[in-house]
């Protein structure tokens, strides 16, 4: 909410700025909305198979929306693959320095939903169990088949897991992994029922073990 910022009480102060920190080619600001390079045809092919891999904390950002004479503006954007509740926030200001703020929310869901149940990182030599949480959001009992694969990390077993989910039930499915090399571990999970399906790709870094010092 910008109102407390622009209309708060201010005390006496002196502000000094130094611009040398912001010289060109000295800093990368990582601006929101920048177009980043893709991964080539491999990622496009995986996306065609229904694998969700575009996860972003900010689905959309646009600081330059101009309303019509009635103060109405419309925007369109493609949501990322996050299946969650999105918070929508808008800040408006006029040429007369009047400010306004509003917010709302909406949810994105699927009948069969996969959510990652994996650590944030692994150390070289770690052995752990991880996988996904499957949720049946339908009104019927479903038989679910799940297949998990991984690259950049050793997967002890890649058999198809089959189990039954009641209506509204969630279940964690885990596989066993061994971090046998440094780099990035990529996990791909696919699940389907007689009517619904979902796919998920998730990545974590595999780091060197921390050195102990005494």
Describe this structure as you would to a colleague.
There is one protein chain. With 214 residues, the chain is mainly beta. The protein is 6% helix and 40% strand. The protein has helices spanning 3-7, 41-48; strands at 51-52, 85-93, 99-107, 112-117, 122-123, 127-136, 142-151, 154-155, 161-165, 170-178, 183-192, 197-207. It is flat. The termini are far apart. Mean pLDDT is 84; it is low at 33-40.
Provide the helix percentage.
Answer: under 10%
Give unreliable regions as ranges. 33-40
Oligomeric assembly = single chain
Q: Mean pLDDT, nearest integer?
A: 84
Q: Over all CA atoms, what is the radius of gyration?
A: 24 Å
Tell me the strand percentage band.
35-45%
Overall shape: it is: flat
Distance between the termini: 49 Å
* Strands, count: 12
The H-and-E topology, N to C, reads as HHEEEEEEEEEEEE
Tell me the major beta sheet.
6 strands, mixed
SS summary, helix count: 2
Give a brief outline of the structure.
The protein is mainly beta and 214 residues long.
Walk me through the topology.
Blueprint: H1 3-7, H2 41-48, E1 51-52, E2 85-93, E3 99-107, E4 112-117, E5 122-123, E6 127-136, E7 142-151, E8 154-155, E9 161-165, E10 170-178, E11 183-192, E12 197-207
Parallel strand pairs: 1-12, 5-12
Antiparallel strand pairs: 2-3, 4-6, 6-10, 7-9, 7-11, 8-10, 11-12
Descriptive key words:
single chain, 214 residues, mainly beta, six-stranded mixed beta sheet, four-stranded antiparallel beta sheet, 2 helices, 40% strand
């Amino acid at each position: 909410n910008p109102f407390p910022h622009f209309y708060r009480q201010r005390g006496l102060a002196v502000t000094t700025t130094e611009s040398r920190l912001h010289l060109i080619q000295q800093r990368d600001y990582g601006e929101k909305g920048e177009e980043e390079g893709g991964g080539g045809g491999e990622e496009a092919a995986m996306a065609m198979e229904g694998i969700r891999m575009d996860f972003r904390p900010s689905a959309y950002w646009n600081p330059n929306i101009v309303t019509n004479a009635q103060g109405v503006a419309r925007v369109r954007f493609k949501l990322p693959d996050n299946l969650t509740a999105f918070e929508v926030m808008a800040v408006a200001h006029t040429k007369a320095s009047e400010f306004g703020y509003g917010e709302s929310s909406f949810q994105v869901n699927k009948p069969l939903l996969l959510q990652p149940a994996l650590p944030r990182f692994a150390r070289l030599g770690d052995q752990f169990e991880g996988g996904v949480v499957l949720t049946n959001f339908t009104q019927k009992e479903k038989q679910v088949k799940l297949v998990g694969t991984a690259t950049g990390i050793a997967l002890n077993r890649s058999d198809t897991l089959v189990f039954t989910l009641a209506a509204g039930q969630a279940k964690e499915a885990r596989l066993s992994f061994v971090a046998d090399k440094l780099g990035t571990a990529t996990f791909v999970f696919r699940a389907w029922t007689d009517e619904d399906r979902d796919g998920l790709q998730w990545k974590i870094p595999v780091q060197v073990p921390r050195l102990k010092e005494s």
